[in-house]
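Quick one:
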Amino acid sequence: MIQDKQQSLRKERIKLLFVDDEELILELYEKTLKSFFSEEPRNSLSLLEEKLFGESSEKTQKYYPEIHTAKQAEAALEIFKTAKENNDPFSIVFLDVRMPPGRDGVWCGEQMRIIDPYVEIVIVTAYSDIPVQEIQARIYPPERLLFIVKPFHGHEIYQFVISLYEKWQSEKKIRSVNESLLKEIESLDSDFKVLNQQRSEILFENTKLNQELDTIEKKFSVIFEQLHEGIIITNTEGVITQVNLEAETIFDKPASSLIGVNFDELPFRYNKLPYQNGKEYYLQRTDGSRIEIEIDFKEINLNKTDNLRVYLIRDVTLRKSFEKKLIMHSYVFSNSDSAIIFSKPDGTVYDCNPAFTKVYGYSYDEAIGKKMSFVNPEGEKITKTILDSLEQKGTWEGFLEIVRKDGSTGWTKTYVSHMKDYSGSIIGIMGINLDVTSEINAVNARVKAEKTVERSLRLASLGSLAGGISHEINQPLMSIKTDVDGFLMWNEKNNSLCSTDEMLEIFRSVSQNVARINEIISTIRHLINFEFASPEKYEDINHLVDLYINEYRKKPINSDILFTLRQAQLPLFKINRLILRQIFDNLINNAITQLRNSGNSLKEIIVKTSFLNNSMVINVSDNGPGIAPEILPVIFDPFITTKTDNKNMGLGLTITEQYVRSLNGSIYAENLENGASFTVTIPLNGVNDENSSS
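Output:
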């Protein structure tokens, strides 16, 4: 029984205050801590103390929490103030930031720090609209201020309580020791005469005091070396007398090179102004690197002549880097011309930037809580498309039609991507929307204008074509009329019929001219009603060209022409055979006609196929007389012909060019050193990569 009582007396009470407007959170704090403390875990500092000072495990400190709660900042402040007035202060306070309808947690922490500057404060929140820098400035100093983000785990709260209590208790002991030491020194100074008279008693007391000081010094030495802040102690002249391990790390120098140096000679000030607590400086290291540090100091008056100054130095390079990035990201978010939207994984908006209102017309409050699709006419349909793309690729981009708050429509160039945490888990969706309404409208207006101009040009071309057609048809009609009228006049004059041979010649002439009219009409029909069947299957172009060439070779009339075929490997093309045959026939017939007029003893037509820049290329060349220089620039215009028999209306190459354009291709004519060349380029259309022709 006595042993149990002694164990109970050894337990240390941790007085805690939890402030949160949610009852469930307060219950969670209490249940969590009671659960953890019921197991009576030994903390790391107790184990370290036992190891360093040889204390037995029986003296290991145990804790029990004394938990106080409040749902509003004002009530919490009253509880805190009363405890301080009763000389029973809280060691740790956990504060929520947002506690409507009352004052927020930052205000509460600020007031508590005024009442008790040594209390450890932990800010616990899931979302705060107060910048971190402002919180740190208001609840000062930052070394007694920590942050934890909801949702949290129980072991996090437990570890915070144990660690912060140990820190609070250690600092309390240090303050107590310092106060005792100063009192002892003052007492020794004031009672010197009395102590001199009682030398024997003083010697005994000094021995006892030295033992206590030795114990204090050992414990202080452990704390001095284990703190995660650089500590430098200087004497009255400012010369460094002590340096801890963290200070060696910050300065990247051993203690031996720092001790004995005047503190003002260390390389981390811009100027000679006095140091100020909490101010930030740059430290230039010997290796050329530069870090950002924060310096606090405290002067300790040992006596009238001797003073110590203790400097606390923190490496804040990483923190400042994060702060700069946070400021940069905040600036980009707030000042971007693109509407930036953050939503939950299901598409529910929880944040957006000011540009959202400019693009869509809705305020921040009107957007929060709605689905991302509420500004899109297609609604759930486009949302499903975006979410499917995010699931497959993690991103989606494209143009979206939007409906603004005032009912007007527009367009955005939109990029959507998943947001992930450090573990790779999806925590939300980010959408960046650039308003491109004016650009889209300009493009549409330009297309409309181009169509208008194209229609006008086509009408003008049709007028020109009609004039040419009238001229072309009149020629064979006049020939027919002349033949028939001549026959009638001859018959009336001689009062008898002409001979059979003469009649046959007249009818042959009539038939030829009628056939020519029919050809003209057929050609005009193809030219005006330019409709072709879509290709249905892949074709071996080299095989087709080979068949066409063989047909020309077999004709007796072409026996004096050498047909040379040079083929490169081609993929299979999805192309209309009729169009390809018409292009090929027009180019071969044109070459044959040129060779008939050349008088060359060796007549040759060379056909080459190749595959270049994802396009099929067919080249037809001959060694004829070539194309007249004045005709070459207009060779593909209607009614331009290179034939001299006046039996052709000059539409063959025009129609050939139309056929090539129907395949999104191009045709080019040029003169060679001997003869002419026509090159047709047709881009890949449904090419089959698995097979190719050779």
